[in-house]
C-alpha cells in the first residue's frame, strides 16, 4: 500500500526533476564543452603549480630563518663564554644590547651553567634548566612560542638556544629570539597570490570559453550587430571581413546596402539645408508626385531686408560680406523656428519667412509679428556691440502680410523650389520696401485682427500698382506686455551661441 508520504515524495521528485530539466539547455555547443574542459585544466594546473611554489617558498624561508637564528646563537655563545667565566657582567650586557640593535632579533639572553639569568634584552621565553641542559648536550635547539602584542594579537616567535663553551668547559647558555611573523606573513601573501592568480586564470578561462562559444556563430553576430547599428542611425557601419563563402557575399550585400542608405541620408541632410526640414520631409515622402501645386492656404509672409546693404558691402571685403549675411541669417533662422515659422528663401540681403504654411498654425499672424519684433530687438542689441567695435550698424526693414496664397514645388522638371506665391506675398514684399530702417509694417486689417496683443501706430495710405484702393499701413511698435516675458526668453535663446559658434569665437579670440 502506497502511503501518503510516498506520494508526496514522488510529486516533489517529479517537480524537482521538471525544474532541473527546464534549467538544462537543450543544446550545448561543442565549442562550449571544449572551453569548459580547458578552463578546468587551466585552473587545476594553476592551483597545483601555485601550491608547489608556495610550499617551496615556505620551506626556503624556514630554512633561512633557522640558519640565521642558529648562526646568531652560536656567535653570541662564542663571544659570551669567556665573560661568563670571568663574571664580566658589563661585557655581557653590552653583547645583548648590541645584538638587540639587529632589526630581525627581538630578544637575547645569557645564562650561567646552572641556569641563572645573567643578562637579557627584548622578548624572552620561559625556559627551564632542563631545556638549557638539552641545548648544551645536543647543540643549538629551537623553541617556538607566542607573545601577545600591544593590539592584543598573538605573535609567533622562535628562540634558538646554544651552549656557551670555553676551551671545552661549559660556561653557560645563550638564547636568541627571532620573529616568525614575517615568514608567516610571506606564507599568507603567497597563499593569497595563489588564490588571486587562480581567480584571474578562472576569469581568463571563462572569457576564453565565451570567445570559443561565439566563434562558430561570429559572422551572424557581426551581421546582427551591424543591422542594429543601422537601425540606430549609424549608417557608417560596415562589416570589414573578407570571406570567400556565402557569408562573404552576404557581408558584401550588406555593405552595399549600408552605403546606399548613407548616401541617401547625406542627400536628405544637404537637401534640408536648402529648404526647411518640414518641406524636405514632405517632398521626400512624396517622391512619386513632386509637383505639389494648387494647394491654397492661409498663411503669413515676412520679408526682412537689410537697409543700406549695397553701400555697406562696397566698404567690405567679399569674405566680410558673406560672414555678415551668414551671421544675421543664422539669427533670423533661429528666431523664425522659435515662432513655428520656416525660412522660405534668402534673396540677397533679404530673408523671406513663412508662417502657417508647412504646419497648421492658427496663430500664424501673431507669431510672424512677434518674430519681427524679436528680429528688430536682436538687431538693436547686436548694434550696441558693433558700435563698440567701430563697425557699421545693421538695420532691418520688415514687411508682413497675411492672406490666401499658393504653396508647393514650383518650377520646371529640372529645377524646382518649394515656395509660396500670390497677391498676399507680393504685398508683403512691397510693404517691406516701404518700411523705414528699424521699422515693421503691416496692413490695417492685420493690425485690427491682432488688437490688443500688439501695439501699432497708423502711418499712411500706400498706393499699390494694379489696385484701385490704396492700402492703409501700420507700424508695429511692440507686443503687449503679457507676451514680453516669452519674447525676452526667445531673444536670450537666439543670442546664446551654438556650440560651433562658441568654438569659432574662441578661435577668433585666441
Query: Got a strand count?
Result: 13
Poorly predicted tracts of residues: 502-510
* Percentage of residues in helical conformation: 40-55%
Sheet with most strands: 8 strands, mixed
Strand content: 15-25%
Label the overall shape: elongated
Element-level helix/strand string = HHHEEHEEEHHHHEHHEEHEEHEHEEHH
**What class, by secondary structure content?**
alpha+beta
Distance between the termini: 98 Å
Rg from alpha-carbon coordinates: 48 Å
Helical stretch count? 15
Mean pLDDT: 80
Helix/strand layout:
Layout: H1 4-23, H2 30-85, H3 89-100, E1 105-112, E2 117-122, H4 129-138, E3 141-148, E4 154-166, E5 169-179, H5 181-215, H6 218-231, H7 246-274, H8 277-285, E6 296-306, H9 309-314, H10 318-338, E7 341-347, E8 350-355, H11 364-388, E9 396-411, E10 416-421, H12 423-434, E11 440-443, H13 444-450, E12 454-462, E13 471-479, H14 484-495, H15 499-509
Parallel strand pairs: 9-11
Antiparallel strand pairs: 1-2, 1-5, 3-4, 4-5, 6-8, 6-9, 7-8, 9-10, 11-13, 12-13
Helix pairs in contact: 2-3, 2-5, 7-8, 10-11, 10-14, 11-14
Task: Describe the protein's architecture and organization.
- This protein is α+β, with helices and mostly antiparallel strands and 510 residues long.
- It is built from 15 helices and 13 strands.
- The chain has helices at residues 4-23, 30-85, 89-100, 129-138, 181-215, 218-231, 246-274, 277-285, 309-314, 318-338, 364-388, 423-434, 444-450, 484-495, 499-509, and strands at residues 105-112, 117-122, 141-148, 154-166, 169-179, 296-306, 341-347, 350-355, 396-411, 416-421, 440-443, 454-462, 471-479.
- Strands 6, 7, 8, 9, 10, 11, 12 and 13 form an 8-stranded mixed sheet that branches. It has a 5-stranded antiparallel sheet with strand order 2-1-5-4-3.
- Strand 7 (341-347) and strand 8 form a beta hairpin.
- Helix 2 packs antiparallel against helix 5 (181-215), helix 10 packs antiparallel against helix 11 (364-388) and helix 10 (318-338) packs antiparallel against helix 14 (484-495).
- The radius of gyration is 48 Å and the shape is elongated.
- The termini are far apart.
- Residues 502-510 have low confidence and may be disordered.
Amino acid at each position: 500500500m502506497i502511503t501518503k508520504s510516498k506520494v508526496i515524495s514522488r510529486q516533489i521528485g517529479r517537480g524537482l526533476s521538471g525544474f532541473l530539466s527546464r534549467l538544462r539547455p537543450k543544446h550545448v555547443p561543442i565549442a562550449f564543452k571544449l572551453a569548459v574542459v580547458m578552463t578546468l585544466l587551466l585552473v587545476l594546473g594553476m592551483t597545483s603549480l601555485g601550491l608547489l611554489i608556495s610550499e617551496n617558498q615556505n620551506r626556503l624561508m624556514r630554512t633561512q630563518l633557522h640558519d640565521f637564528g642558529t648562526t646568531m646563537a652560536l656567535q653570541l655563545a662564542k663571544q659570551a663564554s669567556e665573560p661568563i667565566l670571568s663574571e664580566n657582567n658589563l661585557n655581557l650586557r653590552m653583547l645583548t644590547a648590541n645584538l638587540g640593535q639587529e632589526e630581525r632579533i627581538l630578544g637575547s639572553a645569557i645564562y650561567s651553567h646552572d641556569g641563572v639569568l645573567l643578562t637579557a634584552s627584548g622578548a624572552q621565553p620561559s625556559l627551564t634548566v632542563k631545556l638549557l641542559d638539552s641545548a648544551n648536550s645536543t647543540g643549538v635547539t629551537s623553541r617556538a612560542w607566542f607573545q601577545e602584542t600591544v593590539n592584543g594579537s598573538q605573535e609567533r616567535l622562535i628562540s634558538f638556544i646554544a651552549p656557551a663553551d670555553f676551551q671545552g668547559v661549559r660556561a653557560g647558555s645563550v638564547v636568541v629570539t627571532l620573529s616568525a611573523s614575517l615568514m608567516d606573513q610571506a606564507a599568507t601573501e603567497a597563499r593569497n597570490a595563489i588564490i588571486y592568480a587562480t581567480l584571474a586564470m578562472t576569469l581568463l578561462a571563462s572569457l576564453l570559453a565565451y570567445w570559443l562559444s561565439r566563434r562558430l556563430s561570429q559572422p551572424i553576430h557581426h551581421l546582427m550587430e551591424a543591422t542594429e547599428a543601422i537601425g540606430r542611425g549609424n549608417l557608417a557601419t560596415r562589416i570589414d571581413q573578407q570571406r570567400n563563402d556565402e557569408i562573404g557575399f552576404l557581408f558584401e550585400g550588406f555593405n552595399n546596402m549600408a552605403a546606399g542608405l548613407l548616401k541617401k541620408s547625406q542627400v536628405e541632410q544637404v537637401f534640408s539645408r536648402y529648404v526647411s526640414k518640414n518641406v524636405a520631409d514632405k517632398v521626400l515622402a512624396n517622391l512619386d508626385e513632386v509637383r505639389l501645386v494648387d494647394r491654397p492656404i492661409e498663411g503669413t509672409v515676412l520679408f526682412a531686408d537689410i537697409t543700406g546693404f549695397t553701400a555697406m558691402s562696397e566698404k567690405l571685403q567679399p569674405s566680410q560680406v558673406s560672414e555678415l549675411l551668414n551671421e544675421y541669417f543664422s539669427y533670423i533662422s533661429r528666431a523664425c523656428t522659435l515662432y513655428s515659422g520656416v525660412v522660405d528663401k534668402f534673396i540677397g540681403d533679404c530673408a523671406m519667412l513663412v508662417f502657417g504654411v508647412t504646419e497648421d498654425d492658427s496663430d500664424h499672424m501673431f507669431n510672424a509679428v512677434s518674430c519681427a519684433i524679436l528680429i528688430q530687438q536682436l538687431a538693436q542689441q547686436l548694434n550696441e556691440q558693433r558700435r563698440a567695435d567701430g563697425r557699421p550698424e545693421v538695420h532691418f526693414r520688415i514687411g508682413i502680410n497675411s492672406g490666401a496664397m499658393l504653396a508647393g514645388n514650383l518650377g520646371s522638371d529640372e529645377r524646382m523650389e518649394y515656395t509660396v506665391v500670390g497677391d498676399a506675398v507680393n504685398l508683403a514684399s512691397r510693404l517691406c520696401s516701404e518700411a523705414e530702417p528699424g521699422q515693421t509694417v503691416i496692413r490695417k486689417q492685420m493690425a485690427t485682427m491682432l488688437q490688443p496683443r500688439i501695439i501699432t501706430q497708423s502711418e499712411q495710405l500706400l498706393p499699390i500698382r494694379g489696385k484701385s484702393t490704396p492700402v492703409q499701413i501700420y507700424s508695429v511698435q511692440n507686443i503687449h506686455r503679457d507676451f514680453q516675458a516669452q519674447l525676452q526668453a526667445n531673444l536670450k535663446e537666439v543670442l546664446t551661441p551654438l556650440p560651433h559658434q562658441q568654438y569659432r569665437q574662441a578661435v577668433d579670440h585666441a
